[in-house]
Amino acid sequence: MKGNLEMTLASRLSTAVNAGKIELPGEKLMLITGNLALKQLQATILGLLASLMAALLGWMAEGNMPLNHVVILSSTSVSTAFIASLLQGLIMVGVIIGSKRLGLNPDNIATPMAASFGDLITLALLACFSQWFYTFMDRSPLVLFLVDFLIVCLIPVWIIISSKHPDTLLLLRTGWEPIITAMVISSIGGLILDKTVADPNLAGIIVYVPVINGIGGNLVSIQSSRISTSLHMKYSPGEVPDDRTGCFSPCRAFFGSGSNHRSAQVLLSLVVPGQLIFLFSIHVMKGAYTLPSPLFTFLFLSASVIQVVLLLCIAEYMVHCLWRRQKDPDSYSIPYLTALGDLLGTGLLSLAFVILWCSGNPGST
């Protein structure tokens, strides 16, 4: 969820920078503060929704959910989302403006960095807040309620600030659908992972899920942001290139003379060498100084390639479809694509582990 918020912010600001919308100091300040306030609002509300969804899924799985567990979940989730969103938002603004001044394309830098730093900072804060709040759960539970109350009381402030700019005002009204839907889709992937890990024979999947989902989400977010920027600079909302008006063909994502076709080919070519590096690194960190088995390597790389191919094809269709419907792809496409990446990556990797176990060689992972 946090990755979606960071990447949509990075994609929106990257497009604004490339389109020259923040050349004037006053416009730059209004756009940045409006987007940061909007992201604080989204992080607060979605942090609360995420904790309630986690409590619901826990109740469905175990049959009960004590109230004090729900309270610590909500306090930890809301606090983590609030602080992490503020820190990462400031970092992303600095990265995007710095990239433009150095003559670099923010689309190629900001979105994957947002996803990577988003996971790192969010998980670190989540661990710290959960451990700290756990000490208050029995002796001072009112502290947890107070934390939730104070952060929720800031919601009107974020609404007022974000409504000052017309672009963020529009997102304030219409930008909730993709991130909430993405949270639900990602939760389905989480259920698949939970069921897979519950089998002791397949528990090793937990080490590889962040790798396959992280790389897939990063690559497709770069491509989505590049396509969106190209549409913003060359076409009016609702207007698409002539070769995108007919029936969709998956080959269009990779074959053609445009820069987006070449970037899709380059991004796809990074999957195998990148995953091999991570695969070997994981084995070294686990204390295994031999390479994984050929069968596991083949299945893992196949799952990764299939995931990224599907995501790049979906991105090509989704971004143009959203633009044709006069919806901003920067705010709509990335949440859907990263959530689908989580779902596809987890599902394909689970299938690979099942095949590996059926082959009688599960220890090769």
Description:
It is built from 13 helices and no strands. It is 78% helix and 0% strand. It is globular, with a radius of gyration of 21 Å. It is mainly α and 365 residues long. The longest helix is centred in the first third of the chain and has 38 residues, at 25-62. It has helices at residues 2-18, 25-62, 67-101, 106-134, 141-153, 155-162, 166-174, 176-198, 209-234, 259-269, 271-285, 294-324, 329-358.
Keyword list:
365 residues; mainly alpha; 13 helices; 78% helix; 0% strand
Task: List the SSEs and their pairings.
Blueprint: H1 2-18, H2 25-62, H3 67-101, H4 106-134, H5 141-153, H6 155-162, H7 166-174, H8 176-198, H9 209-234, H10 259-269, H11 271-285, H12 294-324, H13 329-358
Helix pairs in contact: 1-2, 1-3, 1-4, 1-9, 1-13, 2-3, 2-6, 2-7, 3-4, 3-5, 4-9, 8-13, 9-10, 9-11, 9-12, 9-13, 11-12, 12-13
Brief characterization of the structure:
The chain is an all-alpha fold.
- Please indicate the percent range of residues in DSSP E strands (runs of 2 or more): under 5%
Cα separation of the termini: 29 Å
Q: Provide the succession of SSEs.
A: HHHHHHHHHHHHH
Query: Mind telling me the C-alpha Rg?
Result: 21 Å
Average pLDDT works out at 81
What best-fitting shape do the alpha-carbon axes yield?
Answer: globular
Uncertain runs are none
SS-based class: mainly alpha
